[in-house]
């Protein structure tokens, strides 16, 4: 069965990225397919490469990256939500003349249409709210 | 045609969910929604007949919330199975 997941909460102030990762691991373990991950609203902070949580806490952006790369998943970050929160890739940093970029390699900035596309492609669409 | 309702917060999210629950649906409490089991408001008692309520094990344990019958304690593997079994899934947050 095809799953699409949306994550609306940030690692630092919501359990959504943690719950979604537990869920995504179980989806893959059962042999289902994840056709789209979509990070929206504060959830875009899951894709930053420069957050450094204390060493005795889980590093969710890093864990998500490892999971996405291991399973070669399509992980989309809402570009409008990301730009307003300072999560940018190299192209956007160049476009807006920003001093740096911080989007992790496995994520892609794109529009809200990818959320709808994911919901249409998948048999099951699950939202992890903030 | 049954629906899985995923609730991740107590109080208002739970109240909104209950307004939409139909007979035969499943309600899954995750994250802070597990506190509904300790609430004196007893919102879970007004669910229509034939509804089952599941509680995420690790979220209940993390908060010191005890789960007893008729509530079903589940893990993430069962969560995925619930998503497969129900054809619609709604999140309340």
Automatic annotation (TrEMBL), chain A:
Pfam families: DsrE. GO terms for biological process: tRNA wobble position uridine thiolation. Keywords: Cytoplasm, Transferase. It is found in: Cytoplasm. GO terms for molecular function: sulfur carrier activity; sulfurtransferase activity. It comes from the Bacteria. SUPFAM superfamilies: DsrEFH-like. Its main location: cytoplasm. The keyword Transferase applies. InterPro entries: DsrEFH-like, Sulphur_relay_DsrE/F-like, Sulphur_relay_TusD/DsrE. One of its GO terms (cellular component) is sulfurtransferase complex. The keyword Cytoplasm applies. Belongs to the DsrE/TusD family. This is Sulfurtransferase. It comes from Endozoicomonas elysicola.
UniProtKB/TrEMBL annotation, chain B:
It comes from Endozoicomonas elysicola. This is Sulfur relay protein TusB. GO terms for cellular component: sulfurtransferase complex. One of its GO terms (biological process) is tRNA wobble position uridine thiolation. Pfam families: DsrH.
């Amino acid at each position: 069965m095809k799953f699409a997941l949306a994550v609306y909460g940030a690692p630092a102030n919501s359990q959504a990225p943690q719950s979604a990762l537990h869920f995504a691991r179980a989806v893959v373990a059962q042999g289902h397919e994840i056709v789209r991950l979509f990070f929206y609203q504060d959830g875009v902070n899951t894709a930053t490469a420069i957050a450094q949580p204390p060493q005795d806490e889980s590093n969710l952006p890093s864990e998500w990256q490892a999971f996405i790369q291991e399973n070669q998943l399509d992980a989309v970050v809402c570009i409008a939500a990301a730009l307003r929160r300072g999560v940018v890739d190299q192209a956007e940093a160049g476009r807006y003349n920003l001093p740096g970029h911080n989007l992790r390699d496995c994520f892609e900035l794109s529009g809200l249409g990818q959320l709808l596309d994911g919901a249409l492609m998948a048999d099951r669409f699950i939202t992890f709210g903030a | 045609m049954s629906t899985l309702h995923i609730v991740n917060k107590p109080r208002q999210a739970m109240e909104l969910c209950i307004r939409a629950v139909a007979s035969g649906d499943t309600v899954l409490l995750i994250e802070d929604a597990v506190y509904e089991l300790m609430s004196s408001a007893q919102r879970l008692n007004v669910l229509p007949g034939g509804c089952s309520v599941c509680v995420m094990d690790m979220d209940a344990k993390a908060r010191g919330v005890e789960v007893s019958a008729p509530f079903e304690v589940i893990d993430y593997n069962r969560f995925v199975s619930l998503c497969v079994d129900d054809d619609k899934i709604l999140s309340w947050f």
